[in-house]
């Protein structure tokens, strides 16, 4: 495998200058290969099977959270790449009179994409299409945990691209470690802050630039003015989709004490409506995913038991079935900071509920944790919305809804420090995979009037050029 990785990297490095010279039309043709592949019903059927085997993902979620998002980004690229790829003119200051200045976006070269298991198609292909659109050669390492989808991606890319343009490398952590030893021009990583630090450390050895899409504890604030029935239903879905294994899912609730009882009632009703209308149990719903592996199941079970042992109480849910990797949507009350469930990102369908009396308390709670990837605010009061936004930095914010932060290609997606470095989606993702080269082109004139030998006249000219006179 070591030799294979070196061969792939060397071949892509040699081919990178050819890729950099490709026209926008040629780049888009390569992106469209992926789009057309996913639109083929036979290929789509195989993808359904792969994601069902990995996560028990229903077909609607395959389209809504995987394929549809990839196709939305491709559509956005097709509409905008010509504009993005042009030279971007900038103004010229007086001392540079006679020159033309512009920014040229050029590919970084050979890039590495390390993608996660929770949305294994979406989070592999979205950065991939932007890397291709920017003109780079790409090595993609999907997660070995979602093995069926990773195999699907490898087969797809192998059919669509030469391996000196795009190559998929499968394997475990040891393979990722070997890849990180290579001097890639850019690394795009999606995963946990803990692993993100390792990736950043390895990138630093080669001074490779990085994009880190991480996570953290994204709070969901619900104030006394919120429409509780509406918000509880939206939050119940957000915490349940993909069985809570989503970097932008609300990690804990901070609700005004006057609305807590109503919220619990409406949350329970929403879970029943969404996943248990027949009364046969959420575990029998065809619309509810499963935990990815036994390891992650046991981790979540440990968080749950630790919370109960330290004084938390169960409000709803709490059903764990190890053989089926099933965990029901679960609300927990009586939460304290020493509980493990408040010390790490949950990444599952467990939802701690905290209350506040005065909104000053909200910032105090959030400030105990690193800046989150997303901040959710449920309120009908503009002053409260502004207050919660101004006092609590986050990568993004969604107001009166959930899970939308990754949906608009016109907005940057990414975190702040512990929750991420760099931005994804749209032009922001194109820039992550591009070197922003500054160009100054002398069209006429010269600065030779200020060349040595210096004298009082040269000093007078220089002062005038810089606005001193």
Question: How would you characterize this protein structure?
Answer:
The chain has 469 residues and is of the alpha/beta class. The chain folds into two domains: 2-213 and 420-437, Aldehyde Dehydrogenase, Chain A, domain 1 (3-Layer(aba) Sandwich); 219-399, Aldehyde Dehydrogenase, Chain A, domain 2 (3-Layer(aba) Sandwich), CATH 3.40.309. It has 15 helices and 18 strands. The strands form four sheets. It has a seven-stranded mixed β-sheet, sandwiched between helices. A six-stranded mixed β-sheet has the order 5-4-3-6-7-17, with helices on both faces. A three-stranded antiparallel β-sheet has the order 1-2-18. The chain is globular.
DSSP E strands, number: 18
Distance between the termini: 67 Å
User: In CATH terms, what is the architecture of the largest domain?
Assistant: 3-Layer(aba) Sandwich
The major β-sheet equals: 7 strands, mixed
Please count the helical segments. Answer: 15
Question: What is the total number of structural domains?
Answer: 2
* Major sheet: arrangement of strands: 10-13-14-9-8-15-16
Strand content: 15-25%
Radius of gyration: 25 Å
Give the low-pLDDT segments: none
| Shape field | globular
Stated plainly, the CATH topology of the largest domain is called Aldehyde Dehydrogenase, Chain A, domain 1
Give the helix/strand class: alpha/beta
**CATH homologous superfamily caption of the largest domain:** Aldehyde Dehydrogenase, Chain A, domain 1
Fraction of residues in helix: 40-55%
Mean pLDDT: 96
CATH top level of the largest domain is: Alpha Beta
GO molecular function: aldehyde dehydrogenase (NAD+) activity
Keywords: NAD, Oxidoreductase
InterPro entries: Ald_DH/histidinol_DH (IPR016161), Ald_DH_C (IPR016163), Ald_DH_CS_GLU (IPR029510), Ald_DH_N (IPR016162), Aldehyde_DH_dom (IPR015590), Aldehyde_DH_NAD(P) (IPR012394)
Pfam family, one: Aldedh
């Amino acid at each position: 495998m070591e030799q294979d990785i070196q061969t792939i990297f060397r071949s892509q490095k040699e081919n990178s200058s050819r890729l950099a010279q490709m026209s926008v039309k040629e780049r888009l043709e390569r992106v469209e290969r992926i789009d057309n592949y996913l639109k083929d019903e036979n290929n789509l059927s195989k993808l359904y099977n792969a994601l069902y085997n990995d996560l028990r993902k229903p077909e609607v979620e395959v389209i809504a959270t995987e394929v549809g998002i990839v196709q939305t980004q491709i559509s956005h690229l097709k509409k905008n790449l010509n504009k993005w790829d042009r030279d971007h003119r900038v103004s010229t200051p007086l001392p540079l009179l006679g020159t033309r200045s512009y920014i040229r976006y050029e590919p970084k070269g050979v890039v590495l994409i390390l993608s996660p298991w929770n949305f294994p198609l979406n989070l592999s292909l979205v950065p991939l299409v932007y890397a291709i659109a920017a003109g780079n050669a790409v090595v993609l390492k999907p997660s070995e945990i979602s093995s069926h989808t990773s195999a699907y991606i490898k087969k797809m890319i192998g059919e669509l691209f030469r391996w000196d343009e795009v190559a998929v490398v499968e394997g475990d952590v040891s393979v990722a470690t070997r890849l990180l030893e290579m001097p890639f021009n850019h690394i795009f990583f999606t995963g946990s802050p803990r692993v993100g630090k390792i990736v950043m450390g390895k990138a630093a050895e080669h001074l490779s630039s990085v994009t880190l899409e991480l996570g953290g504890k994204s709070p969901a604030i619900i104030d006394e003015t919120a429409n509780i029935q509406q918000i509880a239903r939206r939050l119940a879905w957000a915490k349940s989709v993909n069985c809570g294994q989503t970097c932008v899912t609300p990690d804990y609730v901070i609700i005004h004490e006057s609305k807590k009882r109503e919220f619990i009632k409406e949350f329970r009703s929403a879970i029943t409506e969404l996943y248990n209308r027949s009364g046969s149990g959420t575990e029998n719903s065809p619309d509810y995913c499963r935990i990815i592996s036994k390891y992650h199941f046991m981790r979540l079970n440990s968080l749950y038991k630790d919370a109960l042992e330290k004084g938390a109480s169960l409000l709803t849910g709490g059903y764990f079935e190890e053989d089926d990797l099933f965990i029901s949507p679960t609300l927990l009350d009586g939460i304290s900071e020493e509980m493990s469930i408040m010390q790490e990102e949950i990444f599952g369908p467990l939802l701690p509920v905290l209350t506040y009396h005065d909104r000053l308390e909200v910032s105090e709670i959030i400030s105990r944790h690193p800046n989150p990837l997303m901040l959710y605010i449920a309120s009908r009061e503009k002053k409260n919305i502004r207050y919660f936004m101004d006092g609590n930095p986050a990568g993004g914010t969604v107001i009166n809804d959930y899970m939308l932060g990754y949906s608009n290609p016109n907005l940057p997606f990414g975190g702040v420090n512990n929750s991420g470095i760099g931005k994804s989606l749209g032009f922001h993702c194109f820039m992550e995979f591009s070197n922003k080269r500054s160009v100054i082109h002398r069209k006429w004139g010269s600065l030779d009037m200020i060349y040595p030998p210096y004298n009082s006249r040269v000093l007078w000219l220089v002062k005038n050029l810089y606005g001193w006179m």
